[in-house]
Amino acid sequence: MWSDLTNLIYSAYEQFQFLPLFIEIALAFIFIAIFATIIAYSVILFKRWKGYVDDKRMAFIRPKIEEMITEQVLINEKLEQVPVDEIEFDPAALNDQIYRKGWVRQVIIEVLIQYRKNFRGDVGELLRKLYLDMNLTKDSYEKMKSVKWEKKIKAVVELTQMDVQISDVTILPLTNSTNPSLRAAARNAYIQLSKNEPFKFFDIATEPILPWDQLELFKIITTTKDIAIPNFSRWVSYSTNKSVVSFCLKLIAHYDQQSAIPAVMELLNNKDHYFRADAINCLGKLSAEVAEDRLIRIYNTQPLICQLEILKAIGRIASGRNLEFLKQEFMFSSNFDVRMNAARSLIKHNTPASRALIDEIKDTTYDENRLIISHCQNPLIK
Questions:
Q1: Does residue 229 contact residue 204 with C-beta atoms inside 8 Å?
Q2: Continuous H helices in 224-303
Q3: Is residue 286 within 8 Å of 280, Cβ to Cβ?
Q4: Between the CA of residue 44 and those of 3, 40, 41, 291, what are the distances in Å?
Q5: What's the confidence (pLDDT) of residue 60?
Q6: What's the angle, vertex CA 375, arms to CA 374 and CA 377, rounded to 5?
Q7: CA-CA distance, 94 to 69, in Å (whole number)?
Q8: How many other β-carbons are positioned within 10 Å of the β-carbon of residue 279?
Q9: What pLDDT was estimated at residue 13?
Q10: According to the model, what pLDDT value does residue 368 have?
Q11: Which pLDDT value is given to residue 23?
């Protein structure tokens, strides 16, 4: 049988050699296409079969897990009688043989995280205790050792959600990972878990903090309870990572760190005009009156982005010393954005002198400028 098959293949190969070249090429492409189609369909069928098996397993195990969590945590009668740390779970319920399987333990972790997002207080702490008592931390720490960044992210998220400490030796290198997703997850985790120096990773950061990451970090920093807020001017002065400095400027403005004003003013000498614009924006939000005269002096040497920030800053500082400057920019600038921001800053002063100046401008200027002022005075338009 095998000899017949071998002879058939050899005969077909000999006949193939005598075919014209274009037919040989066509047949080769046909065989490749058939082979690729078989592989593609095999992969699709395997994934569908695996998905079907996973769904069946999940339909079986998830109700058991939820029932166990409900009995041990949600309707635990001891919860209202003794402190969470002193509550003991039923060993028989936790030591079921099926809970020793790796994929089942992963499902338990995911369900616990889902429940903990919805429950706070003692119930949330008891969910965490169940996670610890079942030694699920071991599973999460094992994923931290994986070479796959997806598993590392999963581990970081699990430990963070369950408020389990990760050593600096393990987490700090990840905050500077070249993988953006892993880097962001590690930074978020470090801020939430570190009790003493939650911003230590700023010192070693060489990779940028991307704009979306800055939004996430800002949300975490401003909503985390009892977080130790440092003076962010230290990174403004010494960090060589521009994204770290830019982010620190936002935090300085948010926490109104007046002591940081000298460090922020030093950035006005920076060659990067985007950097200067961020610094000017920060000074305005800090209402740094000490910086106002310098902003006026450098105004004519700055690109448009910095000029607009200076106009906004004068409106936020609202000392009243530069109303005439704002009037001149509004009346004589050919740039619409400059005129718009000058008008807004005049209106923001909201003093008798500024109101009188606005009335004077309305009486002497042309229709477009009057329309700009009316637009800026409308409280419904931001």
A1: no
A2: 233-238, 242-254, 261-266, 273-285, 292-298
A3: no
A4: 35, 6, 5, 65
A5: 87
A6: 65
A7: 10
A8: 28
A9: 61
A10: 84
A11: 72
- What pLDDT does residue 234 have? 93
Q: State CA 359 to chain mean position distance.
A: 46
- Distance, CA of 86 to CA of 81 (rounded, Å): 10
User: At 356, which amino acid appears?
Assistant: A
Nearest to 177 by CA among 193, 164, 188: 188
Query: Residues near 16 by Cβ (< 8 Å), separated by ≥ 6?
Result: 24, 27
Instruction: Give 271-277 contacts, CB < 8 A, sequence gap 24+.
Output: 272/242, 273/302, 273/303, 273/305, 273/306, 274/305, 275/242, 275/245, 275/246, 276/302, 276/306, 277/305, 277/306, 277/309
CB 256 within 8 A of CB 286: yes
- Nearest-angstrom CA–CA distance, 334 and 236: 35
- Name residue 64's amino acid: K
pLDDT mean for each 10 residues of the chain (382 residues):
60 64 75 90 91 86 90 83 84 84 91 89 90 92 91 93 89 91 92 86 90 91 87 92 94 95 94 93 95 94 95 94 92 91 92 88 82 83 66
Residues 308, 288 contacting (CB under 8 angstroms): no
Using alpha carbons, select from 61, 224, 225, 66 the residue that is nearest to residue 130: 66
Q: Distance between CA atoms of 256 and 265, rounded to whole angstroms?
A: 15
**226-265 burial code (b ≥16 CB/10 A, e <16):** ebeebebbebbeebebebbbbbbbbbbbeeebeebbebbb
Joined tokens for residue 266: 């030093």
Read off the DSSP letter of residue 197: -
Q: Which amino acid is at 90?
A: D
Look up residue 101 and give its amino acid. Answer: K
